[in-house]
Design a protein that fits this description.
The strands form two sheets. The chain has a three-stranded parallel beta sheet with strand order 1-2-3. Strands 4-5 form a two-stranded antiparallel ribbon. Helix 2 packs across helix 3 and helix 2 packs parallel to helix 4 (about 70-85). The chain is α/β, with parallel strands linked by helices. Strand 2, helix 5 (about 100-115) and strand 3 (about 120-125) form a beta-alpha-beta unit. The protein has eight helices and five strands; from the N terminus they run αβαααβαβαββαα.
């Protein structure tokens, strides 16, 4: 268990909501600039925003209004906003819901990269394949109650008669 005071903790936390938290009438850069100021990020604003834009492969679109962005681009911009303060913990609510396979894979790669950098990523998902490929630990909820907590291997061991995680998932939620 790690303890932080509330002010310090907020600086170490990033959040990506399920619904986009963007201003469509502003450019991508202006959206990130707004969140940069709100978060109290230190450093050269333009440099930090452009670096994150490049990291997420959206830098060439930052001068366009968000209303012109695709769903995947908006999702990446939301993620960029959450990464501005270089958080140690990133919480993502359904980060790949409704996205095309290319963008879903891009976000999955990002999650893996952040984890390799030592960051903790907590995300919600209904995609079993994401759980298998991205998670060290999973928590399964049903009717607001935890019905399983542990690793994929532990889940498989708990239900050895069921062949795949997809089948376990269907069994638990039926």
């Amino acid at each position: 268990v790690i303890y932080y005071d509330e002010k310090d903790f907020k600086k170490k936390l990033g959040y990506v909501p399920q619904s986009n938290a963007l201003y469509d009438n502003l450019t991508g850069f202006d959206n990130l600039s707004f969140y940069y100021d709100i978060l109290g990020v230190k450093g050269n604003k333009k440099e930090i925003i452009n670096k994150i834009g490049k990291y997420l492969d959206i830098e060439k679109h930052l001068d366009k209004k968000v209303s012109k962005y695709s769903g995947g681009m908006k999702r990446k911009l939301d993620i960029a906003a959450a990464l501005l303060n270089n958080p140690e913990i990133l919480i993502m609510d359904e980060p790949t819901a409704g996205l095309d396979i290319v963008t879903r894979n891009s976000i999955a790669s990002l999650i893996k990269d952040l984890n390799k950098e030592g960051k903790t990523v907590i995300f919600t998902s209904h995609y079993v394949s994401e759980m298998k490929n991205l998670c060290d630990k999973i928590i399964l909820l049903k009717d607001k109650k935890i019905i399983f907590q542990g690793s994929i291997k532990e889940l498989n061991n708990e239900y050895p008669e069921i062949k795949s995680i997809e089948e376990i998932y269907l069994y638990l939620y039926s």
